[in-house]
Design a protein that fits this description.
Blueprint (H helix, E strand, L loop, with lengths): L1 E3 L2 E6 L9 E2 L11 E5 L6 E5 L3 E4 L8 E5 L3 E5 L2 E6 L2 E7 L1 E4 L2 E4 L3
Antiparallel strand pairs: 1-2, 2-10, 3-6, 4-5, 5-8, 6-7, 7-10, 8-9, 11-12
Length: 109
Amino acid sequence: MFRQGDVLIVPVAEDAVPGRTAASDGEPRDGRGRLVLALGEVTGHAHAVVGPGRLVRESDDPAAPMFLHLPQGGRVVHEEHAVIALPAGWFRVVRQREYVPGAVRLVAD
């Protein structure tokens, strides 16, 4: 497992990726060509993957599970965290959540 701030990245077998998902073909990439896993609403900083890869989402809901495929491995970067090197393979990307009275929401940085 790998953690960078409020993003947890867990290696998974390819058969654990749901078949009903839609590949996003590299979206959402930012202006620097990085594959964005989470964008900070307050700071504008991004947890992002540098290098080839794609995100596979179960739905358009930002809180829904997403899967990351890195055919050659990659690096997760963020302006305020150390770089994390990931091996080639599939990963489940989990965004940290928090409770606020009456709701559970994704953590905003």
